[in-house]
Amino acid sequence: MNLRPEATPKALVIHVEEDRIDAMVSIQFKEDIHTLTENASERVILDMAQVTFLDSSGLGAIVAVMRRLAPERRLELAGLTPAVAKVFRLTRMDTMVRLHDTVETAIALPSVA
Amino acid sequence: MLVAPQPLIKTSDATAWQEFRLNAESAAVRAVLSKIISADPRLSQDPGLSIRGEIVLAEVLNNIVEHAYGLAGGQILLRLRHGATGLHCEVLDRGCEMPSGTLPCSTDPKIGGAVTDLAEGGYGWNLIHTLTQDLAYTRHLGTNQLSFLLPYAEQTDAS
Asked: What is the distance in angstroms between the Cα of A77 and the nearest Cα belonging to chain B?
């Protein structure tokens, strides 16, 4: 699983350098993100710009990460591509997680609890 | 050598069934989805339709890989045919029967409470029910058959 963490002053950004988060890789994805966020600060931003497809198992993995970080820390997502945004909209998970157009806009915004 | 006679009424390509056979493995599911979308002019030219089709077919096929066959493995037959209002899809496998022998209903996992109360699964059948019409399941002589229509027009989500 190609995940590139980048520590910024305001958040831990994890660039997901994979095309698909699906049944083939979702368990590995979840475990690797858990490892990377073990000592993470309050905000973790997943850069999803390279991910062109996410299925329900990938969504479940992201929910697992959100649950693990809560309540003190928060997962946010940036750069959702159309198919990924569609899955978030259809399941209404877009109402449960803060979404940003890009990592840059996410970092520029103040953290809101 | 016998040559099959040509049908009197020539069936256009648009109405013929396309068949795809694959092993019940997540890598094979990835491969067949990519093949279906790149080979089908209607899907490859309509990004919204191809996204909806890829989501539905990924959910249906991965359900068979994980739940119908599991570790035992097996074969899946996928048949697609373009119709007047959408893409007709049939998926056959010889794995386990659906729990209680019927189609899982569209369980709507609870959304809106605390993040820690969110379910980590149960979203797949929701996506399938939302994006398809005429969803039907039968089991006959050890074969599961799931059929549905993937409408060309967006049904529930305006974007």
From this structure: 15
> Is beta strand B86-93 parallel, antiparallel or unpaired with respect to B75-82?
antiparallel
Distance CA A81, CA A90 (A): 14
Boundaries of every domain in chain B? 18-158
Distance between CA atoms of B131 and A85, rounded to whole angstroms? 15
Q: Which residues contact A105 (CB under 8 A, 6 or more apart)?
A: A78
pLDDT 10s digits, B9-22? 444 554 689 999 99
Instruction: Give the position of tokens 């659906």.
Output: B98
Is A24 close to B51, i.e. CB distance below 8 A? no
Q: For domain B18-158, say whether CATH 3.30.565.10 is its number.
A: yes
Tokens of A65: 């990460």
Query: How crowded is residue B156: how many other Cβ atoms within 10 Å of its Cβ?
Result: 10
The shortest CB-CB distance from A83 to any of B26, B55, B59 is to B55
Name the residue among B52, B62, B109 with its Cβ closest to that of A23.
B62
Interface touch B120/A70, C-beta < 8 Å: no
ipTM of the modeled complex: 0.92
Using alpha carbons only, give the angle A71, B125, B40 rounded to the nearest 5 degrees.
115
Q: Three-state DSSP class for B22?
A: strand
CB pairs under 8 A between A and B: 87
Half-sphere CA count of B21, side-chain side, radius 13 A = 3
DSSP A48-62: -TT--EE-HHHHHHH
pLDDT in tens, B106-124: 777 788 888 999 999 889 9
CATH number for the domain whose boundaries are A3-106: 3.30.750.24
